[in-house]
């Protein structure tokens, strides 16, 4: 959780017990955060600002409520569609600054049940038990600085009687039903057709993905998922510790349990690729260069034309296809992906056999590295998936 987020939440809770000067400084900060280039900070400020402004109006703090800049900001935020019809997320949860500032609100508040629900560390019953255990001992407790609050309501939905009589129509007997199978069991996998169990650990794709230039754990987790799904030999990353990062695991969906992920430092990539080439691998970079072939095309669109004989005398023209212009992927290859910002470094480009780029027609002309890797691997399977 980012610092401005924590600051906003604590400030909202503390504001009723502070002075007008404190709230004036708080809304000044929120006004600045509302223009932050970071989406989360900007959204937090946008939804916190009206709450604090309402408090200032209720308290009669005119230095805030009558400030033209603050009034304009408050009016602008309230006109936003997302303010009046916000989704039910932790960032848009409406909090009553005074009513919800209780022990129950802190430890069992609604914010704990949104997005990624957390177990209650302390409950209303725990505090009541503690209070009850103090009574026989005659402990003279000071007045509560923070009230306990009411026990959280338990939602109950009455069960309705349901007619259990099955209704079968002719249409039900003839219409085929599409079943979602992503999370189910692949029955074919229960009886492998590819030889003895000792052969089952062999990956079907003779491709190694080199992702050592990539830093973002989220992107690496996505590439792990893609690599495992397409049956790659191995995925190489700069540091194996990144595979334990929470952002990696959020996108990998445990694919790292079924894929060989190996450490290859960025400085060691050129030497590794040279060694791979000596073992029969062709090294292909997914990169936009002036000599890149178009992925999926046998040659680039800017072929050089030469003449065999005198054209005026009936000579014929032919196209020269340079190997570095070819956009198809070899069966046994190392796919190299560049960093999110700089792409493939000059040192690595120097040892790459050829580069391919993904043809796009939009203005952006760039793809996320996960997307680019997935498209390239799908193209490999389209070319080689059914061939021995």
UniProtKB/TrEMBL annotation:
InterPro entries referenced in this protein's UniProt entry, alphabetically: Alpha/beta_knot_MTases, SpoU_MeTrfase, TRM3/TARBP1, Trm3/TARBP1_C, tRNA_m1G_MTases_N
Q: Which residues form the tRNA/rRNA methyltransferase SpoU type domain?
A: 209-378
Q: Does the keyword Methyltransferase apply?
A: yes
Q: Which Pfam families match?
A: SpoU_methylase (PF00588)
One term of GO molecular function: RNA binding
Under SUPFAM superfamilies, the record lists:
alpha/beta knot
Q: Which superkingdom is the protein from?
A: Eukaryota
Keywords of this entry: Methyltransferase, Transferase
Q: Give any single GO term for biological process.
A: tRNA methylation
PANTHER family the UniProt entry points to? METHYLTRANSFERASE TARBP1-RELATED, RNA METHYLTRANSFERASE
Please state what the protein is called.
tRNA/rRNA methyltransferase SpoU type domain-containing protein
Q: Which organism is it from?
A: Pyrenophora tritici-repentis (strain Pt-1C-BFP) (Wheat tan spot fungus)
């Amino acid at each position: 959780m980012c610092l401005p987020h924590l600051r906003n939440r604590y400030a909202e809770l503390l504001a009723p017990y502070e002075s007008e000067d404190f709230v004036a400084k708080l809304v000044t900060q929120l006004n600045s955060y509302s223009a932050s280039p970071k989406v989360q900070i900007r959204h937090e400020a946008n939804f916190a600002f009206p709450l604090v402004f309402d408090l200032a109006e209720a308290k009669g703090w005119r230095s805030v409520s009558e400030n033209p800049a603050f009034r304009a900001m408050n009016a602008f935020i309230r006109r936003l569609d997302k303010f009046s019809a916000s989704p039910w997320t932790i960032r848009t949860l409406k909090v009553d600054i005074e009513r919800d500032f209780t022990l129950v609100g802190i430890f069992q508040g609604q914010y704990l049940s949104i997005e990624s629900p957390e177990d209650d560390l302390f409950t209303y019953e725990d505090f009541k038990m503690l209070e009850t255990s103090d009574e026989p001992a005659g402990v003279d407790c000071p007045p509560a600085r923070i009230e306990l609050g009411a026990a959280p309501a338990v939602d109950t939905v009455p069960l309705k009687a349901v007619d259990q009589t099955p209704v079968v129509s002719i249409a039900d007997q003839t219409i085929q039903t599409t079943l979602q199978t992503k999370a189910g069991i692949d029955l074919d996998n229960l009886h492998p057709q590819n030889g003895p169990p000792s052969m089952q650990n062999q990956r079907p794709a003779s491709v190694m993905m080199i992702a050592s230039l990539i830093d973002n754990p989220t992107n690496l987790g996505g590439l792990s998922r893609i690599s495992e799904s397409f049956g790659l030999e191995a995925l190489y990353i700069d540091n194996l510790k990144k595979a334990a990062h929470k952002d990696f695991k959020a996108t990998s969906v445990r694919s790292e349990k079924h894929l060989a992920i190996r450490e290859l430092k960025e400085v060691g990539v050129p030497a590794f690729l040279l060694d791979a080439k000596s073992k029969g691998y062709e090294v292909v970079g997914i990169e936009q260069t002036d000599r890149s072939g178009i992925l999926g095309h046998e040659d680039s669109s800017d072929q050089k034309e030469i003449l065999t004989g005198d054209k005026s005398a009936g000579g014929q023209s032919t196209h020269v296809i340079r190997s570095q212009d070819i956009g198809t992927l070899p069966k046994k290859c190392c796919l190299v992906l560049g960093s999110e910002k700089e792409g493939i470094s000059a040192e690595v480009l120097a040892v790459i056999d050829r580069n391919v780029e993904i043809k796009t027609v939009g203005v952006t002309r760039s793809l996320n590295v996960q997307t680019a890797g997935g498209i390239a691997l799908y193209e490999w399977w389209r070319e080689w998936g059914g061939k021995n």
